[in-house]
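Cont'd.
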Amino acid sequence: MTEPEILKVAAGSRTTAVAGAIAGMVREEKQVVLQAVGASAVNQAVKAITIARGYLEQDDIELTFIPSFSEIEIDGQERTALRFHVLPHSPRSELST
Amino acid sequence: MTEPEILKVAAGSRTTAVAGAIAGMVREEKQVVLQAVGASAVNQAVKAITIARGYLEQDDIELTFIPSFSEIEIDGQERTALRFHVLPHSPRSELST
């Protein structure tokens, strides 16, 4: 098991680029954790995961995610980040209950 | 299997109230789908799910969720909503791999 890599998603991140990174890491069986601070960044992170789900359909991999709060420091200030632990599931039928 | 109930989350929704609704529905084994339009609403939805995870820890229920895009009409205009299909898992150990 490798250490999870934390992808920092910003308000200006391109969702398709982040989605491509997620899909690539999932295919390589790496653990993926996204981190976002602020509503716009959180929105980009969720959209990126949604797009990555489409990319991985052909691989028969279903993505779900677990969100958590994380206290981080930015420019000396405490901020609450949202982290998204991406979980690949296969086969899809596991999730249909 | 009941039809999923769609909880509409707005930018001004109280996250703890939405989290309480999610936790209640999951405990009653109802399917939960959240719908959010716009970055602020998406952010509130993700925060509500994260808080609901805390509420359900004592029940030994682990929540994950699947995001999807959904085209909806608001005031005659096409908008893209994000939907979050909440998936309860139990026991927790299933997700620890």
